[in-house]
From TrEMBL:
It comes from Halobacillus yeomjeoni. This is YqeG family HAD IIIA-type phosphatase. Gene3D superfamilies: HAD superfamily/HAD-like (3.40.50.1000). GO terms for molecular function: phosphatidylglycerophosphatase activity. InterPro entries: HAD-like_sf, HAD-SF_hydro_IA, HAD-SF_hydro_IIIA, HAD_sf, PGPP1/Gep4. Transmembrane segments: none annotated. NCBIfam families: HAD-SF-IA-v1, HAD-SF-IIIA, YqeG_hyp_ppase.
Length: 175
């Protein structure tokens, strides 16, 4: 059961995820979380670095769909300037939004990855839906109310995984 929370890969930041690395794995599409994955949860717009990351993915023929549990206004405001497809009120970890993104991109599961900062929504949902999952460290250590609850549960799961030798990396918020 707890293995469903185990990501396939881990990076400190989405900016470390290189399009060449993804292309070597046959990746043609990304389903990415928004808040605390691409920008801090309280930052409305993409940073220049994130704009460059989206451009690099696009230049390598990799589609990106932003999939967020947040509301339409928040996700649309962020996504539109990037010309990025998006799904709001995704209800992750339920699989509906992941499958919808896959249909929109018209790709096979093994041609896609799910990127996010939370085990309980992004990684669990991506794994249950059958995708390759990538966990990134949250951009900021502050969160909304429900995410703070999730982080406490995540710390317990990550500590268990570390004790069992399933992960070797450390997260900034594990101290």
């Amino acid at each position: 059961m707890l293995n469903n929370f185990l990501p396939n890969e881990h990076f400190s930041s989405v900016l470390e995820i290189d399009p060449n690395h993804l292309k070597e794995k046959g990746v043609k599409g990304i389903i990415t979380d928004l808040d605390n994955t691409l920008v801090a949860w309280d930052v409305p717009d993409a940073t220049d670095e994130i704009k460059d990351w989206f451009k690099a993915m696009n230049d390598h023929g990799i589609q990106v769909t932003i999939t967020s549990n947040n509301n339409e206004d928040r996700v649309k405001l962020f996504s539109d300037p990037l010309n990025a497809d998006f799904i709001y009120s995704a209800r992750k970890p339920l699989s509906h939004a992941f499958k919808k993104a896959q249909r929109q991109m018209d790709l096979k599961k093994d041609e896609m990855v799910v990127i996010g900062d939370q085990l309980l929504t992004d990684v669990l949902g991506g794994n249950l839906a059958g995708f390759h999952t990538i966990l990134v460290v949250p951009i900021v250590e502050t969160d909304g109310f429900f995410t703070r609850i999730n982080r406490k549960i995540e710390r317990r799961i990550l500590n268990w995984m570390r004790r069992k030798g399933k992960i070797t990396w450390e997260r900034r918020d594990q101290s």
